[in-house]
């Protein structure tokens, strides 16, 4: 697949097949993605690859926190406190398109909540990728990590796999770090569903 084709065809998939992702494919994706540029070749990204029981454990923990009404405490603020135009219109258009495609009406709060909860199990994808960065690093390193994350998505497309980058997987970073035994010095940027669709 051409790079331009991978870019144009990349989408955030929210329904995956149960087909397993071969370890070799994950290795190939990450080997390719690591060629992302970074300031002074710092390569500031850290990752966790989750599958099987570990992925289930993390997903169940996140679902429980959300269902219990626990306030999310992400390592950083993803969205501004006050969203202004043109971002409000884009956000609303995205929400309408997503829920319309799923046949969920705006007033159907329970179905919307149920759909949201699917985030924590990566929409049925067999693999979850989690991206971390050291707390000591500055904003430039976050840009570098973003380029690495984009490379992961494009490399996955090149192998016929789909992805969905997910800020939702970073809502309760302390719990994720605790389950995975990851030090507090690593901020959780986001997660990503990976699989076949």
Describe the structure.
With 197 residues, the protein is of the alpha+beta class. The chain has helices at residues 3-9, 23-33, 52-67, 87-101, 109-117, 139-158, 173-180, and strands at 45-51, 127-134, 162-166, 186-195. The protein contains 7 helices and 4 strands. Helices cover 44% and strands 15% of the residues. Helix 2 packs across helix 6 (139-158) and helix 3 packs antiparallel against helix 7 (173-180). The longest helix is centred in the C-terminal third of the chain and has 20 residues, at 139-158. It has a single domain, classed as NADH Oxidase (3-Layer(aba) Sandwich), CATH 3.40.109. The chain is globular and about 50 Å long. It has a 4-stranded antiparallel beta sheet with strand order 1-2-4-3, with helices on both faces. It holds the Pfam family Nitroreductase. Keywords: Oxidoreductase. GO terms for molecular function: oxidoreductase activity. This is Nitroreductase domain-containing protein. Belongs to the nitroreductase family.
How would you sum up this structure in a few lines?
The chain contains 7 helices and 4 strands; from the N terminus they run ααβαααβαβαβ. With 197 residues, it is an alpha+beta fold.
Features:
NADH Oxidase, four-stranded antiparallel β-sheet, 7 helices, oxidoreductase activity, Nitroreductase-like, Nitroreductase, oxidoreductase
